[in-house]
Amino acid sequence: MRILTVVGNRPQFVKAAAVSGLLRAEHEEILIHTGQHYDDSLSQVFFAELGLARPERELGIGGGSNTSQTARMLAALEPLIEELDPDGALVYGDTNSTLAGGLAAAQAGVPVIHVEAGMRSHEPSMPEELNRVLTDHLSALLLCSSESSAENLRAESVSGRVQVVGDVMVDVALALQPAARSRPEVPAAYGVESGRYLLLTAHRAGNVDDAHRLRALVELIRSLPLPVLVPLHPRTRARLHAAGLLERLQRSEGVRLTEPLGYLEFSALLCQARAVLTDSGGVQKEAYLAGVPCLTLRANTEWVETVSSGWNTLIDLDPLAAQAALAHEPPAHRPELYGDGHAAQRCVAAIGAM
Ligand code: UDP
């Protein structure tokens, strides 16, 4: 089979790294990079570190509003799909690249395969929620990370075939976290000691595009009781700069801002942190797998099992909730929630059986 894979941003490079090699062993894959994330720290480093094949085509479409970006991707993908005539189109997650890849393929009559299908925050104002709901409803094969996401799809009566395969990001994390744990030199290079610092990431529109919430985020970071490392997403850096808050954060004692990090360095910092604070879906999962408590900077999450198991606390941007969560001992048990590290194999088998 000829499979056209459309990726465009950081978490999608991680997910594609799990699947692409296995897919190529049995089928022809053509990888298209939309350019949604284009700078080296969010893109190139992931191809280099995770062994993802170079994209066959690069569309160079970044920037602009969600609507204009999606529209430009659709316009670029339509002739490509016609030229390449694939048997299926593979998309990951919930970004503009996911929706554009899915919609352009479905309009051309090409079956869409959605990996990480069925995740729901039930918050329709979230751009990611729109992308994932729409993509699920145009997909022919919906590959789910967990039983709860499959249930979401059944409740919405999607027309495609639903299958729980586990989570492909888990494949990558389980393979690389053991080495990440035994690298104390990585936190040391940032002036912090293994187990005695916090790692924080934030980039969701709901946290950084709203000036009031951005200020609350800054005050939350300043209130934390341990040194905190913050690899700053370019979007967050730009919003902090525009709001005049970047310097306030830079000058805060115990706060260390860095550029976005490569997967291996970030993973070493995550595995050795006392706790992780994040609004990222991928990072919530990775913290769980690493056995590191997570404080989620949102009022809801798609990764509901991490919360019900007691390893993830939804603190939104509340400093008191952060302190309470940090004072809490993590649970004694950590059940396997999102598969056994072989989700990609099941994805490829499901694609082959289409
Ligand atoms: N990540 C990374 N470097 C960083 C921050 C995150 O390598 O400085 C990785 C992280 O380990 C995870 C992925 O990027 O695999 C998550 O991406 P992001 O938070 O952008 O997206 P989301 O998961 O929220 O869709």
Question: What keyword list fits this structure?
Answer:
seven-stranded parallel beta sheet; alpha/beta; binds uridine-5'-diphosphate; 13 strands; 16% strand; 354 residues; globular
Q: Name the ligand types.
A: uridine-5'-diphosphate
Please work out how many helical segments DSSP would assign: 17
Strand order of the largest sheet: 3-2-1-4-5-6-7
Low-confidence stretches: none
Could you give the count of β-strands?
Answer: 13
- Into which percent range does the helicity of residues fall? 40-55%
Distance between the termini: 10 Å
**Overall SS class:** alpha/beta
Strand count, sense and closure of the main sheet? 7 strands, parallel
Overall geometric form: globular
Mean pLDDT: 97
Set down the secondary structure blueprint.
Blueprint: E1 2-7, H1 10-26, E2 28-33, H2 44-50, E3 57-58, H3 66-84, E4 88-92, H4 96-107, E5 112-117, H5 127-138, E6 141-144, H6 147-155, E7 161-164, H7 168-181, H8 185-189, E8 198-201, H9 205-208, H10 211-223, E9 228-231, H11 234-242, H12 246-250, E10 255-258, H13 263-271, E11 275-278, H14 281-290, E12 294-296, H15 304-308, E13 312-314, H16 319-327, H17 343-352
Parallel strand pairs: 1-2, 1-4, 2-3, 4-5, 5-6, 6-7, 8-9, 8-11, 9-10, 11-12, 12-13
Helix pairs in contact: 1-7, 1-17, 3-4, 4-5, 7-13, 7-14
Bound molecules: uridine-5'-diphosphate.
Residues 10-11, 14, 201, 203, 231, 260-261, 263, 266-267, 280-283, 286 line the site of uridine-5'-diphosphate.
